[in-house]
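Quick one: structure for this chain?
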Amino acid sequence: MQIKIDRDSRQTVYMQIVEQVSAAVEGGQLAPDTRLPTVRELADSLDIARGTVKHAYDELEKRGVIRMIQGRGTFVHGRRERPLGKKERAMQAIGALFEELGSLGFSPQEIRIFLSLKLRELEELGDGILIFLVDCSPESLAMLEGRLAGQADIETYRMLLDEALASSENFAGQADLIVTTATHYVQLRDAMQNPDRLMQVVMTPTHETIVDLAKLGEAKLGIVCASERFAQVIRHSCEALGINIGEESIFLFGEEGLERFLETRDAILLPPNYLRFCSASEGALLSEAHGRGKSLIPYEYQLDGGSLLMFKERIASIRRQKNRLIRPESR
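Got it. Here's what it folds into:
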């Protein structure tokens, strides 16, 4: 055991011994049950009074660092483990659960769904209508959710298409309804064993979006969004309206050079909820560009009339079925 005494220190000699022994135990340099020098041995080796060493050992024993056994000597009691609090124990349990589910091959998205469904049971929300929304881009999912959510008994979960295709067997049986856009309906239907709960909807640009585009004339347009897939959705939709936007006119959040890109464009097409996808600095650059006269146009979609009517009919049918299960008709 190496102890160094600094005689010029303002700290008392006995406290220097206490802290150095404590640090050696906590750091693992002194293993549990290690025998320490006797009071006399340590006092002689450090050339200090035996009473000083005895004072230090008494303090160490009081702190639980060492134990002094009459007739046998002084021993390291071992590193004291701080009892885990409830939050720490909970995080350990959750971590173990995640590790086990991961070992079974479930993706983080699937685990999130399982936990949400279990919470619904615990909160006694099982009578609500559970809808999974599936599309290829987070921007489209956010808009789709905005159009279909909002009713008290409807709970929605968003899933990207790739995740849904990989885990269709695990989530499909839990949903009351699975909603996807017409673009992906066939692909998702073919991946599901029982596609009865799957419905497709058609999303079209809003009237306001079309009017804003018509006003631009010969303005040089750019698309700024979070995903390449949504950028292509906007691009193809513009082409259907007779507006051509080249591949070089697309910028994705997270890339470098947004400021330079904005300088080369007269107007920018964005998802309506773009602030949830960009960083604070990117949001500031877009705001500054708008202040300099650049047009920021939210490219917003809506459900066409037929899709909205079909969705309402499906929801009404699901409610009737659930009500029959909860309150069966008397015979």
